[in-house]
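> forwarded from #structure-qc
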């Protein structure tokens, strides 16, 4: 009897080979996509890690600059200063980390709108918040309270008036007082929570 399979054996085998090749190509493409996705995920993780490291270094530099600028502000009795010269407790008010040539740059002009609860909280608790063990919760609370108290004493209107307001340029005094009031309000809110 006549069998189409036997007479067209070569055609069937060729068709079968093409089908297997298509499956193999799809599997290869799927493997390439999976490998590309894996490599992209690794690259994204590395970018994220480096970004986090840069942010941590920037924050550490900002906190250090904040302390230095307060020491400088307190140690120069005769020098007058303006609103922007005050080291407000926000990252935007701090100098930027020096570039590779060692030059530092002041941040853009700060306004009262910059002195928000999230900005101040982020600045004050940048190195206090973190992956602490559960048994360190009391220490965390103590550190947060200490930072709030220290900042409150620096920005308390009566204390600031007594120590520094005479050095503030006359045209800037109202703006500085408004900034002090804004910071103290935020600190009180943070202390209450």
């Amino acid at each position: 009897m006549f069998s189409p399979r036997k007479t067209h054996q070569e055609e069937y085998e060729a068709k079968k080979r093409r089908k297997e090749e298509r499956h193999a190509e799809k599997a290869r493409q799927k493997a390439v996509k999976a490998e590309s996705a894996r490599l992209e995920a690794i690259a994204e993780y590395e970018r994220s890690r480096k970004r986090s490291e840069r942010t941590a270094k920037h924050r550490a530099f900002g906190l250090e600059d904040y302390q230095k600028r307060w020491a400088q502000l307190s140690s120069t009795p005769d020098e007058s200063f303006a609103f922007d010269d005050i080291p407000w407790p926000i990252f935007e008010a701090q100098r930027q980390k020096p570039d590779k040539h060692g030059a530092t740059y002041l941040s853009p002009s700060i306004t009262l709108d910059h002195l928000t609860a999230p900005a101040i909280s982020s600045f004050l608790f940048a190195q206090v918040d973190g992956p602490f063990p559960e048994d360190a919760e009391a220490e965390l609370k103590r550190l947060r309270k200490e930072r709030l108290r220290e900042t409150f004493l620096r920005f308390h209107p009566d204390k600031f008036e007594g120590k520094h307001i005479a050095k503030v340029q006359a045209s800037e005094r109202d703006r500085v007082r408004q900034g002090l009031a804004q910071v103290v309000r935020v600190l009180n809110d943070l202390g209450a929570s």
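QC bot note: DSSP finds six helices and no strands in the chain. The chain has a mean pLDDT of 83.
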